[in-house]
Amino acid sequence: MANVLSVEALTHHWGDIRLFEGLTFGLEEGDKAALIARNGTGKTTLLNILAGKLVADAGQVTLRSGIKVGYLSQDPVYAPGMTVKEAVFSGDNGVVDLVRRYETALEEGDQSTIGRLMEQMDALQAWDYEQRVKQVLNQLRITRLEQPVEQLSGGQLKRVALAAVLVEEPDLLILDEPTNHLDLDMVDWLEDYLSRNRATLLMVTHDRFFLDRVCNTIFEMDEQSLFRYQGNYSYFLEKREERVLQRQQEIERARNLLRKEQDWMNRMPQARATKAKYRIDAFYELKEVAGQKTDEAALDLNIQSARLGKKVLHLEDISKSFDQLELIRNFSHKFVKGERIGILGKNGSGKSTLLNILTGSLQPDAGRVDPGETLVFGYYRQEGIQLDDNKKVIEVISEIAEDIDAGSGQRMNAAQFLRYFLFPNEMHYVQVRKLSGGEKKRLYLMTVLMRNPNFLILDEPTNDLDIFTLGVLEDYLARFEGCVLVVSHDRYFLDRVVDQLFVFKGAGEIKNFPGNYSQYQEFEKKAEKAVSAREKSNDAAATDKAAPRKSKSATDNGKPRKMTFKEKKELEELEAAMARLEDEKSELESALSSGSLSAEELQAASERLGRLLSELDNSEMRWLELSELGQ
Question: What's the pTM?
Answer without folding.
Answer: 0.68
